[in-house]
Specification:
The structure is a homodimer of 273-residue chains. By secondary structure, chain A is of the alpha+beta class. Helix content of chain A is 27%, strand content 33%. In chain A, the strands form 2 sheets. In chain A, strands 8, 9, 10, 11, 12, 13, 14, 15, 16 and 17 form a 10-stranded mixed beta sheet that branches. In chain A, strand 9 (162-167) and strand 10 (170-174) form a beta hairpin. The A-B interface holds A 5, 7, 15, 17-31, 33, 60-61, 90, 92, 94-95, 101-104, 111, 113, 136-137, 142-147, 149-150, 152-153, 176 and B 5, 7, 15, 17-31, 33, 60-61, 90, 92, 94-95, 101-104, 111, 113, 136-137, 142-147, 149-150, 152-153, 176.
Chain lengths: 273, 273
């Protein structure tokens, strides 16, 4: 059975989720998105994601066609109409149907796509390819992923499943998740030039109850000398980074702090579900 | 009457030019495009544009679903089906309908959109806003225009109609056209970090028959001290840049070399039409 989606005020079967090619997200990459999960019908960290979505919209000058209450009601309705134990919900908003193919329209296009979701349970840790890059507008969750997608063949060649960005000797983030290092049980994550992830926010929040926590620039040297390295994101929760290029972290094992945070993350989620 | 377009093997009325939201151009900005004009049914510099389109596709690892002969036949058919004296033809190709919303599909989505075109005849020269920026993959005509579109309110506030990019003290290009400076009747245009425009190519080619021509880095200092500054592009031909921010070029007049190149450009076009 196919999913039920939302498109500009209409609730439709997924195969009818079509937009005209004059959409400015398609023509010019002008748009934003957000993604979160629902477990057993309960959205996880939804208000955080709606906060960020609204903030991305404001920074991109994109009017949201629905207010927060309506948006929430639409999402909850879609969760009921798509009864999967684990559901991913992607919200996309673009500059609308542009008359001249460049200038944003007065009305944004808003799409909400629920889809069954599953974690890659088999993997214990991630292998990454390092990539010199800085996202253009890092604080906004924009639609632009051309550079990391272009790197997929390079990733595959070394068996990596994602990239980690660095620029001017400092690391920033993975293509779709944040990065943390652990040194002497202190948790450190880059502060500038990154997307402020919702999982990142929660890890910082509950992490500081048990560990010392710092948000600041992290050099590549410090990164490679870390005791543990992990990534956080809505599709990943907390996952150890086991290898970047040829460098192996934590002697190939999951670090103690990473393990503890994985446990705390699941507890945090349970308080929502 | 609405236009007739091409979408993945089908010839359709423009209002049916709709793609599913799982398109990777929309979801992740992963795609390329090109644009050229037809005058009185004759495409201008079409083979150059097809060369560039194929090159963009190759660099982005996007398979083109049609070979050159078929592509040319489709375009010529669309020109006949859309009998406008001046027609703009936009070709868009994306990473296709992605299964996981990130990895390019085996089959690209190819869209060809003809649309009546008109030059902004009223303007004698352009006013620009300077913007510190470098396109991410400058040699590919990608779909990513988030940064310049985000600058539209700033542009409008000073009455500018486009931006000119600079980085580390050097200028590169406008958002959708190339830039040239003239100093002592020598024509100079940036060589690196720019899209290799088809109009740029023709101006360099016929320009060097009458003037000295250089492709090399152009500093901002050199730019602001130029005798004349102009831009070239398929939607503009050759247009003088009259002002950038508060700086006025050529005492507000169209320079001699710019005028001459405008004349030669029209002659070059006529040899195709």
């Amino acid at each position: 059975m196919q999913e039920t989606i939302y498109l500009n005020g209409e609730i439709l079967p997924a195969d009818q989720a079509k937009i005209h090619v004059s959409d400015l997200g398609l023509l010019r990459g002008y748009g934003i998105f957000d993604f979160f999960r629902a477990i057993d019908g309960k959205p996880i960290f939804m208000e955080d994601h709606l906060d960020r979505f609204e903030n991305s919209a404001r920074l991109m000058n994109l009017p949201i066609p629905e207010n927060r209450d309506t948006l929430r009601a639409i999402i909850l309705d879609l969760i009921i109409k798509n009864p999967h134990q684990l559901l991913g919900i992607k919200m996309i908003m673009t500059g609308g149907y542009s008359l001249d193919g460049y200038t944003p329209a007065e009305k944004s296009n808003l799409i909400i796509l629920p889809k069954p979701f599953s974690f890659k349970e088999s993997r214990q840790s991630m292998k990454l390819l390092s990539l010199e890059y800085q996202r253009e507008i890092p604080e906004i969750k924009t639609l632009n992923y051309a550079v990391p997608i272009l790197a997929i063949p390079k990733m595959k060649a070394i068996g990596a499943e994602d990239v980690i960005y660095h620029k001017d000797g400092f690391i920033s983030e993975l293509s779709r998740s944040n990065v943390f290092i652990v040194k002497n049980e202190k948790i450190i994550t880059p502060k500038e030039g990154v997307l402020y992830g919702i999982s990142r926010k929660h890890v910082l929040s509950f992490g500081k109850k048990q560990f010392e926590v710092e948000e600041r620039a992290v050099s590549m040297k410090e990164f490679y000398e870390a005791d543990e390295v992990f990534t956080t994101g809505s599709t990943k929760r907390v996952i150890a980074i086991g290898q970047v290029d040829n460098h192996i972290f934590s002697e190939g094992k999951i670090g103690k702090v990473t393990s503890k945070l994985q446990e705390l993350f699941l507890e945090e989620e349970k308080s929502y579900a």
